[in-house]
Inverse folding.
């Protein structure tokens, strides 16, 4: 989580919980906690940076999950594309082609995608935190 994350904000906490659930993550820590954990186990943290924050014009990291525009690539992330996927999974599950629970997995992943877009827009989460660390010999 970035420094914009507010652990007292219910909306921030809900978005974080949805990312953790959909991503199968036990917990997402802030950058300082991650850096401190590396130091605690003996690593020397040489450099850290959020690669999603760049100077100048750039495409946000969450843009592929938004599903905007009229292209085949963005269709799968659009509201209609997600609905088609969900209904196709329902049909395949009913026909016993897809295993039971496939719809639930799809809905969980969809929840995560929506939460990641919201977290990206709010600036409270980054999937691009780079850590350059060294384990002393």
């Amino acid at each position: 989580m970035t420094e914009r994350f507010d652990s007292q904000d219910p909306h921030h906490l809900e978005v974080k919980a949805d990312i953790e659930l959909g991503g199968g993550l036990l917990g997402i820590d802030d950058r300082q906690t991650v850096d401190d954990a590396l130091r605690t186990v003996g690593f020397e943290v040489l450099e850290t940076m959020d690669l999603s924050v760049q100077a100048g014009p750039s495409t946000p990291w969450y843009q592929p999950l938004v599903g905007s525009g009229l292209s085949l690539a963005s269709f799968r992330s659009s509201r209609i594309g997600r609905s088609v996927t969900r209904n196709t999974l329902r049909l395949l599950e009913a026909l016993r082609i897809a295993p039971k629970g496939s719809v639930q997995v799809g809905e969980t992943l969809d929840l995560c995608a929506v939460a990641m877009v919201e977290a990206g827009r709010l600036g409270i989460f980054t999937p691009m935190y780079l850590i350059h660390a060294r384990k002393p010999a």
Summary: Residues 10-134 form one domain. The chain has a mean pLDDT of 90. The beta strands are 44-50, 129-134. Residues 102-122 form the longest helix (21 residues).
